[in-house]
Amino acid sequence: MAVVTPPPPSAWTPDSWRSRDAAQQPRWPDDGELKRAHAQLTGLPPLVFAGEARHLTRALGEAAHGSAFVLQAGDCAESFTEFSADGIRDKLKIILQMAVVLTYGAGVPVVKVGRIAGQFAKPRSSPTEQVGDLVLDSFRGHMVNDDLPEPGARIPEPARLVTAYQQSVSTLNLLRAFTKGGFADLSQVHAWNQQFVASSTEGRRFEDIAEGIDSALRFMAACGIDLRSENTLHQVDFWTSHEALILDYEEALTRRDSLTGDWYDCSAHMLWVGERTRQLEGAHCEFLSGIHNPVGSKVGLSATADDVIALCERLNPDRIAGRLTLITRFGVDAIDATLPPLLRAVQEESHPVVWICDPMHGNTFTAEGGRKTRRFDDIIGELQGFFRAHREVGTWPGGVHVELTGDDVTECLGGVEDIVEGQLHQRYTTTCDPRLNGRQSLDLAFRVAELLRS
Ligand code: PEP
Ligand code: CO
Known about the structure:
By secondary structure, this protein is an alpha/beta fold. It is 38% helix and 13% strand. The chain has 13 helices and 14 strands. The protein is globular and about 70 Å long. The N and C termini lie far apart (70 Å).
């Protein structure tokens, strides 16, 4: 009888995740529809190119080595219904403003990565949720089902995978136009200050920086430097990222690069696994292990130093700087005790890691009226703990990861306007987690710039 040799574990293919346990996947009711959506996506053009992903790996490599800082920011969940050019523009404005504050205030290059153009799927702690008297299947992001509080709306629909792709295409198209076509020009820096932000203390502090940039540009021009030929003054590199959660979608957009022969997930420049899907032997780590994009993993309270080292080995065995970003999310009360041992363990193994602080997901709680929220002070407190831990160990605090919107929402408590629980209902529009509004985001950027300076 012929002996059948199992394939070696290195036999990675875009669909090798299918032989592993895949957490958090929707129970699609119709397999035929899923196969049709998958086939359609497989035939559609990639959103990003392999060369761009390699460029981002190099930029993140600078952050791993301590000479750049990463700003990863955007919605908790993008929405099919709240989708407009103005919304994209305003989100980009606030991210560009934050990046200017960090670059100008702390003097480090900032790698700008959006949670955008693909951030449509949400892992959930519970398969059901209570809305009023109803117990419904959980909302899993518009890539999967609808957030309306009706049982029918919560049934997963495979056609949404294609809609998510299409919305990502138009979002990315506009982002490319904005960032390369003049909007992100440093001479436009005043125009990024939205009215409701400009009238605040942070807005005025931003105007001071903008004045400083103006006079630096005038000075350089007066010295005879031809500013028009300096591309870096007129364009920015803005990268996309999302949680690689729905593996049917990610697999369908994974393509082989014709230059190198390597596989890239062309749904975004960077992909990460979440706190609920980072099992070493699970489907999500299997998928990320074979694509050549820069990848990330959330790291929460349950992660031991051994777990983190194993993640580094699994996702970055070749120890390429910029390949792996670890996004910590411990909460303000736990970070001082939890982060330093992990930093030491990774340092001892000489694994190049970009350490990023997500000060949002460990600080979420449900307010009295039933809305999820976060305190601005807890968010800042966790960031302070993050910088303290890196100072203690002698490692580089590589960046921040925040959920924000350019809109004037009332979703997180505190900040300059001192939003209180009774005001949360006023402008609470997120489809998932509470986001910082424009003023809170800018305030956060000033505080991080101060932490970076010190
Ligand atoms: C998120 O980033 O929106 C998220 C769900 O994070 P985590 O996996 O850290 O819970
Ligand atoms: Co979130």
